[in-house]
Amino acid sequence: MRTENRGQRTAVRWNVVVHADEACLGNGMEPPTPGGAGGFVELRRADRAGVVRRDYFVSEPDTTNNRMALRSAIVALELLGAKGRALHIEFVSDSNYLVQGMSEWVHAWRARGWRRKGGEIENLDLWHELVELAERHDVTWKWVRGHAGHPKNEYANHLAQMAAREQLDSGGLVKSGFAVWLAAEREKGRLSP
Questions:
Q1: For residue 113, is it left (φ>0), alpha (ψ between -120 and 50) or beta?
Q2: Any idea where the domains of the chain sit in the sequence?
Q3: Residue 137: pLDDT above 70?
Q4: CA 73/CA 38 separation, integer angstroms
Q5: Which of the 8 DSSP states describes residue 32?
Q6: What's the angle, vertex CA 73, arms to CA 127 and CA 62, rounded to 5?
Q7: The predicted structure's pLDDT at residue 74
Q8: Disulfide engineering: 36 pairs with which of 59, 105, 125, 171, CB 3.0-4.6 Å?
Q9: DSSP line for 103-136
Q10: Integer Cα distance of 77 and 92 in angstroms
Q11: d(CA 31, CA 164)
């Protein structure tokens, strides 16, 4: 993080980390297969201590796990880019499809005119949208093992599952329930301190 001086104005730099996950109830089964994507954003300002956390979640009535993984990133980048500022973002997900896709595959696909060696690219509409949004920021894509006791990944999974089950949409960034959820999970002995 750093502060850039431009004349009299100082542009505050943000350190942004997004923890996201996806869910699809009945993935690969007969439709409808409702899905959800959820995550939470941690924002740290260069000039202040502490962190601000915000949640987001969306749902679709009939989808796939891979589509919801892409939506988890699209929604986050749309919300973070709403004011037109380019941000440094670390995007953390347990989806190899998303992380490897954005870190490696899209470059080769582009070079081949948006085709795979084996033919068409699944979810091409969402890949195009995600690449366009990601290019507005400096994004680092990081994979984390899912369902392995990582509290932030588990919370993102909780949001995605809730959105899928109840077909909910947060309507934007909302106050995070991470601290309350984490305390409850630890009290139940599900996550270690």
A1: left
A2: 13-187
A3: yes
A4: 9
A5: P
A6: 75
A7: 99
A8: 59
A9: IIIHHHHHHTTS-BTTBPPTTHHHHHHHHHHHTT
A10: 13
A11: 14
Q: Please state, as a whole number, how many other Cβ atoms lie within 10 Å of the Cβ of residue 88.
A: 15
Q: What is the pLDDT of residues 38-65, one digit of tens each?
A: 999 999 877 777 899 999 999 999 999 9
Is the CATH code 3.30.420.140 the one for domain 13-187? no
| Structure tokens belonging to residue 116 | 């795979």
Contact between 152 and 92 under an 8 Å Cβ cutoff? The reply is yes
Structure tokens at 180: 């309350």
Residue 101 burial by Cβ neighbours in a 10 Å radius (0-12, 13-18, 19+): buried
In tens, the pLDDT along 65-91 reads 999 999 999 999 999 998 888 899 999
Distances (CA, A) of 35 to 32, 41, 52, 136, 177: 9, 20, 27, 27, 21
